[in-house]
Task: structure prediction
Amino acid sequence: MKPAHTSRKRGPPVPPPPAARPAPPVKLLPPGFVADRTEAAARVERLLRYQFRDRALLEEALTHQSVSDAVASYQRLEFVGDAALGLAFTNFLYLTNPTLGPGALSTLRAANVSTEKLARVAVRHDLYPLLRRKCARLDLLVSDNRPQLPWNCVNFGVFWNLIC
Result:
């Protein structure tokens, strides 16, 4: 006796799904970036133990020029901050080192307000993720290889503008 063969009936072929619109590209944020600007401002205020009256100035100070030409970046604030920081260090060094001459005082001041030193302090205090930016090179410089970085390639005066 032969086994009974049951034929499976197939229905009409299933049409492919309608052409879907392509998904929008995924927006990748820079590593460690704090997208919530209110949270970024709050972190800076906690770190500095200072409450800013004008949060717009703080947001400007946290905006790298790579974001857009139409958006105000920290560059103008940096100009004032660099001068204020230089004056503050000059005053401190002058008052605390009465026996040093102007050459030694200048060398000490330059060593303490250098871009490299300020950059290292900013990264050490986790300020970099708070910077609004669109610069992969900058992110790469501040990646895992921090100790070997050529910090003079990166301008971090922005973080010191927050203090002054």
Remarks:
- DSSP finds seven helices and no strands in the chain.
- The two ends are 99 Å apart (CA to CA).
